[in-house]
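step: validate -> pass
step: tokenize input -> pass
step: predict -> running
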Amino acid sequence: MEPEEFIRENTALLPVPHVPEIDLHVAHEAMDLWQKTEDELEAIGLPPPFWAFAWAGGQGLARYLIDHPAVVTGRCVLDFASGSGLVAIAAAKAGAASVEAAEIDRFAVAAIGINAAANGVALSTRLDDLVGRDEGWDVVLAGDVCYEQGMAARVVGWLGDLQARGARVLIGDPGRSYLPRERLEEVATYMVPVVGALEDNEIKRTSVWRLK
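step: predict -> pass
step: emit ->
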């Protein structure tokens, strides 16, 4: 099955709970889709359907951009590990000059394109691991990237290098295990509705962070 067909058959277009200005194709039944992708997709080397949910960090970061558009207005923006494209769409709605949404999952890239079209915004997608690269982005956004120790260390180190050369870096995260709090300071905090079947609660205290 092609990614676009799979996404449309297994999701519904709904407003994001904490960012109702944006609609996303999200899973009809969270655990059913998760199991389905394990059965049908992981056998051919594809990751779980992170693209089918509005995760807490992404919702917080998207809310912040919609409420503070000056962060991205007129700037070149990268949304790293974009998932559903929620943060990238928020950046485009907030007036970014250009937005790239990067993912390593071709189903996520397809979902980002479908969701961008549903919200009437233009952005570009990258099926690529950009960690370690610097293509001159003005703003780099990363939601929910600290759920694995190795990934968190690798990504935050790279984000630190980008900030050191002048990029504005923002991370959305509900305080996951490998969030390097000692390197961060809070910019904003929200109480974000999430899918209880995938999280430890149905409301997550979620912050937007910047590197110190």
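step: describe -> The domain at 3-211 is CATH 3.40.50.150 (Rossmann fold).
step: cleanup -> pass
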